[in-house]
Design goal:
Layout (H helix, E strand, L loop, with lengths): L5 H4 L3 H10 L2 E2 L2 H5 L7 H16 L3 E2 L2 H30 L1
Parallel strand pairs: 1-2
Organism: Paenibacillus terrae
InterPro entries: PIN_8
Protein name: PIN like domain-containing protein
Length: about 90
């Protein structure tokens, strides 16, 4: 039974090493939409760099549903970011 619920117990350092070297990373829509939420270019570049490295090594998977949700929601997220800046500007002026 412990083998079925290993994540609730603990992995050895060797098991973690294997995971980081061989795991396939599956992102959800929020990871992709975070590109519009980061306020620093460093954060955006860092996330993009990580995703590119994973893609180049064949270890990134973006499910069809995630891509679909991204394309349905990215414009709204861009607008929300702009609204947030406008609200902040208004508050600072007040």
């Amino acid at each position: 039974m412990l083998d079925k619920f290993k994540g609730f117990i603990s992995y050895t350092n060797e098991e973690f090493k294997v995971f980081w070297e061989k795991a396939i990373f599956v992102v959800d829509t929020n990871v992709l939409l975070n590109f519009f939420k980061y306020t620093s270019k460093e954060s955006t570049k860092s996330l993009l760099g990580i995703l590119k490295k994973l893609k180049d090594s064949g270890r990134l998977w973006i499910p069809h549903q995630v891509a679909l949700e991204y394309f349905f929601n990215y414009e709204n997220n861009m607008l929300k970011q702009q609204e947030g800046y406008k609200l902040l500007e208004t508050e600072l002026k007040n």
